[in-house]
Amino acid sequence: SGEGTELPYGKEIELNGFRVALRDAGHVFGSAMVRADDVLYTGDFNPEGGATCGRAAPEKVDTLIVDATYGKPSFNFPPKHDVEADLLTWLEMELADGPVALGGYEFGKSQELIALVNRLGVEVAVADRIATLADAYVRHGIRLHYRRISELGEAERREPRVYILPPGWLRPPLDESVSWLGGLRLRTAYVSGWTAFFDFTRRYGLDAQFPLSDHGDFEDVMGFVEACAPKQVYTVFSHGPELAREISRQLRIPAEALRGR
Question: How far apart are CA 194 and CA 179, in angstroms?
Answer without folding.
Answer: 27
